[in-house]
Amino acid sequence: MRLIVAGVLALVGSLLPLGAVAEEPSINAWLMRLHEASRHRTYTGTFVVSAAGQMTSARIWHVCDGEQQVERVESLSGTPRATFRRNDEVVTFFPESKVAVAESRESLGLFPNLLKSNTAGIAEHYLMKPVGSERIAGLDAEVVQLVPKDALRYGYRVWSEKRSGLVVQLQTLDPEGKVLEQAAFSELQLDAPVNKAKLTQMMAATEGYRVERRDLQKTTAKAQGWDMAKSVPGFKPMGCYTRPVALLAGATGRTEQTMQWMFSDGLATVSLFVEAFDARRHSREGATELGGATRTHTRRLEAWWITAVGEAPAPTLALFVQGLERKK
Fold this sequence. Notes:
Elements: H1 24-40, E1 43-51, E2 54-65, E3 68-75, E4 82-86, E5 89-94, E6 99-104, E7 126-136, E8 139-148, E9 155-161, E10 167-173, E11 179-190, H2 196-204, E12 210-213, E13 217-219, E14 226-228, E15 236-246, E16 255-264, E17 269-276, E18 286-291, E19 294-301, E20 304-310, H3 314-323, E21 324-326
Parallel strand pairs: 6-12
Antiparallel strand pairs: 1-2, 1-11, 2-3, 3-4, 4-5, 5-6, 7-8, 8-9, 9-10, 10-11, 13-15, 14-21, 15-16, 16-17, 17-20, 18-19, 19-20
């Protein structure tokens, strides 16, 4: 189960009256206010993610000193692990296996990862509707619903702390309004005394661990020989990467490259993975639910195996795998 793990822009005007349609500057400024709060506020808390009848929890420490953000996320359920992030540098420690995975991740935000890109087109695909006020984790929060304008994306219900704008609860909703996934702080302390130097030291303490680097290599889909024959409305390319993947062929030791092409409409993200077809691993084409809001759709295209993964309805993922084509 995946945990939803991110200068301050002021909110333009007040939230609209109940039922009003948001103009584009308001929804974008509101989202950026929430995004900047997750980046620049210092806080500690415990948050819980629930989806498909399962629940996971973690403890988070986050501090920002100017433009440098440092964060620690300690898993409280499942496999013991601790993830440290300094800006785009990430190290995850697995104490049972004594393995530390180091990688670089480009991301606009940390927890909660709501705003996926600094795009001005979000209002083209979502309406912002204020719902009211509630108290979450002992804090007063404003509740806003983001309603999709078409069936290609899910909706969201967002609780943000009134003074800071920090998101304290987030729900992903299906077209009928059913909650597919929820992430919420059960306890939160704003402006907590988090020691950035100590977190940085803990992040560097890899002695006794086998360090594995899993950095992605930047590329373009065109350079890899791929293109989208027809774009999916609202979703724009956000980056393309390759990573080496070990083959299953015994002791050959060979590796092949897997391409990951990422798209976003500003809130939802979809990744297209392209790898060489292997009959031992790739068999079932079509849609699969991974739990909560996450879906996959797979397709074989000649010698290639294409997988779309994202928090989007199944028909949206089908459009991605059907739209990808090999350039001649």
